[in-house]
Amino acid sequence: MLLFLSLVPAGAAQQYVAFDAASATSTYSAGNVGGSPFAAQQALSGGSGYWCSSGSHNAGNGVTWTGLLNSRRTALGVKVDWAYAPGEVKIMTSSDGANFEEAKCWQPAGRKEAAFEESFMFDAPRGVKAVAIAMRGSQSWGYFGINSAALIAEPGPFMLVSGITSTAGEQCLVSGAAGVSLEPCLLAIAAGDGREVMEMDKDGQITNKAENTCITLVDGDTSGGGTLAMDACSDSVESGDGRSVFAITANGQLKMPRLGNYCVTLLGDGAGASRAIVQDCIEAEDNADSRDKFFMAAVPEFDPRAAAAAKAQAALLAAAEEHLGKLLAELQAAMPSLAACGFKASFAKQPAANMVAMTRSGEALRVQGDATSVAVSAVAPALGFDVQKLHTLVTATREALAQIGGQS
To answer: What's the half-sphere exposure (Cβ side, CA atoms, 13 Å) at 346?
Structure first.
């Protein structure tokens, strides 16, 4: 599951980052078979569900809910939306997801009622991959419960994931020569050029660090939906017309607050050819397919070194492929005379067996139809390498060695 985050109004240097996974030391089962509807994961985001403890906790019976992040973030605190608040709370954090230290000692819950929102701010920013919320002192309602919990974090990199559903998997807004468009997130990642990695600065500009450009409404013109493109980021947003300023609303819309009531939406069928435009926010809310909704999936910072290393390896593999092709051509030219030379098959059997295993593993990957396999298959073309050509060459080499073996 992706790590969703929402932003406070543009200009504030913090983000609310939801956890990617969760666990709890106690869960209300309600006698359900196949899992509890009140599992720890229910508190990963706000909605109709929530996490609830088993109840009937005595004075010494504490309960802990733990949220885990995929990527470590610099955290300022944690926000909890209580469903059933405890008498006392303690917050612990972990930088590696395994070893925890106390961030906030035991303290009374902020209010006396069962359900309310409460934020726990740390004394100093912390590198956090997991947060444990310890609870004790059961109130009259007898349970501990959390509607949602989110990390209060410093701004960091993210992918803008569209609310549109697709058989190709989650769709991301990406930067490119064609402007701002929609592309399967995994395929964008496979390209290795950072087109999908964005950051939002304190002014509300959404930046692609790989290109050092910002999402901008061309000429600030909203007519006909306008045109969103990647352009030079502004150093003086306050004095501009707001064409590059955005804010995420509570319902997930990407709004342009300086231009009036305009929100980003998508024009197209959501199948990879959609173009980002702007539309009246009220009209956009009527989109049944959520094409005007975006979620920010937290990711590590883009590191061009990984793509550079992959390209270097691809070049090495291409050179090896070329060398193998030349050897195969020489072998095929010499094959008619091998029988007269008394060639023995055993010399070729082991290499042939290794090549069979190699080609079969490639075939197994291609027959898988899930989005991850499709993305993995897209890596080689993005690096300029033809896997099918290599597969054909290896198969031809295997067949040539098998033919030689039959001549002995």
So the answer is: 0
Cα of 14 vs its chain's centroid, Å: 19
Q: Which two tokens stand for residue 153?
A: 């974090």
Rounded Cα distance, 363 and 390, in Å: 12
Q: Distance between CA 278 and CA 276 in Å, rounded?
A: 7
The domain 171-298 is placed in CATH, from the list 3.20.20.105, 3.90.180.10, 3.30.1360.70, 2.80.10.50, at: 2.80.10.50
CA dihedral in degrees (120, 123, 127, 129; nearest 10)? -20
From the list 170, 168, 162, 279, the residue with the least C-alpha distance to 217 is 279
DSSP 80: E
In CATH terms, the fold of domain 4-153 is: Jelly Rolls (2.60.120)
pTM greater than 0.70: no
Answer for the pair 162, 266: CB distance below 8 angstroms, yes or no.
yes
Q: Going residue by residue through the chain, which has 408 residues, state the pLDDT in tens, using 9 for 90 and above.
A: 344 444 443 344 567 888 989 999 999 986 554 557 899 999 987 777 899 999 988 877 899 999 999 888 889 999 999 999 999 999 999 999 999 999 999 999 999 999 999 999 999 999 999 999 999 998 999 999 999 999 998 888 888 888 887 777 788 999 877 778 888 888 888 888 899 999 988 888 999 988 889 999 999 999 999 999 999 988 777 667 899 999 888 678 899 999 989 999 988 755 545 788 999 987 766 667 788 888 877 788 888 887 777 777 878 888 888 888 888 888 888 877 766 666 554 444 444 444 444 444 444 444 445 656 666 777 777 767 777 788 888 888 888 888 776 654
- Burial (Cβ within 10 Å: 0-12, 13-18, ≥19) of residue 43: buried
